[in-house]
């Protein structure tokens, strides 16, 4: 009889243990992540919010690069960085000081994914090139960069953000291809989430 009782109790114990283990894995699913954007017209800000939402990043962890400090960023393991492209392929103006800020926060051993917005028709020869400046800066600072995207399906003439037929991050065109944005974000988020 005692043996029968023990068998009846055992599955409950195992079930409780598994449930605790499952909850623990859920909490550890993604390291602390922030999204930082530079936006002059609001387009990159909107994209940053959409990406954060799909990643499950709280709005309190989404920062305008012009208003963020190195102290605020110290607690984060993952950085999702977004820039628009201006001029002859430059990153958005606020990023020039912003790069210094995130380097001060320390990027060695951290994971970074980059996204950018551009205009593949009017600025076809510098499409999303601003991402390249961010890419080079964070690589130099010791970050692991994830989320490169194949150039397949894009129409443009040239981009400094292309290395080995891949953009260094997610290239988005809200001017000419806004109908592809959600699909591109969804595919990118699915790819980078396991790395975060």
Describe the structure.
Low-potential electron donor to a number of redox enzymes. Pfam families: Flavodoxin_1 (PF00258). This is Flavodoxin. Residues 33-193 form the Flavodoxin-like domain. With 196 residues, the protein is of the alpha/beta class. The protein is 39% helix and 20% strand. The chain is built from six helices and ten strands. It has helices at 2-27, 43-55, 70-73, 95-105, 130-140, 181-192; strands spanning 33-38, 62-64, 78-86, 90-91, 111-117, 144-146, 149-150, 162-163, 166-167, 170-172. Helix 2 (43-55) links the parallel strand 1 and strand 2 (62-64). The chain starts with a helix and ends with a helix. 40% of the residues are buried. Mean pLDDT is 87; it is low at 1-28.
Number of beta-strand segments: 10
| β-sheet strand percentage | 15-25%
Helical stretch tally = 6
Radius of gyration: 21 Å
Mean of residue pLDDT? 87
What is the architecture at the second tier of CATH?
3-Layer(aba) Sandwich
List unreliable stretches of 5+ residues.
1-28
SS content category = alpha/beta
- Shape verdict: globular
Question: What is the CATH fold-level name?
Answer: Rossmann fold
CATH homologous superfamily designation: Flavodoxin domain
SSE string = HEHEHEEHEHEEEEEH
Task: Set down the secondary structure blueprint.
Elements: H1 2-27, E1 33-38, H2 43-55, E2 62-64, H3 70-73, E3 78-86, E4 90-91, H4 95-105, E5 111-117, H5 130-140, E6 144-146, E7 149-150, E8 162-163, E9 166-167, E10 170-172, H6 181-192
Parallel strand pairs: 1-2, 1-3, 3-5, 5-6, 5-10
Antiparallel strand pairs: 3-4, 7-9, 8-9
Function: Low-potential electron donor to a number of redox enzymes.
Pfam family, one: Flavodoxin_1
Protein name: Flavodoxin
């Amino acid at each position: 009889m005692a043996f029968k009782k023990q068998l009846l109790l055992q599955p409950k114990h195992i079930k409780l243990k598994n449930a605790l283990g499952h909850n623990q894995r859920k909490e550890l699913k993604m390291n602390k992540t922030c999204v930082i954007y530079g936006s002059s017209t609001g387009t990159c800000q909107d994209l940053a919010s959409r990406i954060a939402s799909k990643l499950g990043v709280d709005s309190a962890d989404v920062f305008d690069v012009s208003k963020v400090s190195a102290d605020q960023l110290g607690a984060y393991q993952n950085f999702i960085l977004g820039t628009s492209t201006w001029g002859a392929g430059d990153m958005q103006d606020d990023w020039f000081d912003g790069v210094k800020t995130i380097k001060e926060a320390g990027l060695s051993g951290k994971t970074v994914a980059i996204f950018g917005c551009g205009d593949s028709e009017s600025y076809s020869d510098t499409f999303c090139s601003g991402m390249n400046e961010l890419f080079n800066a964070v690589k130099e600072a010791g970050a692991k960069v994830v989320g490169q995207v194949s150039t397949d399906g894009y129409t443009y003439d040239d981009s400094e953000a292309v290395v080995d037929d891949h953009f260094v991050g997610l290239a988005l065109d809200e001017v000419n291809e806004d109908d592809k944005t959600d699909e591109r974000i969804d595919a990118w988020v699915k790819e980078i989430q396991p790395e975060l």
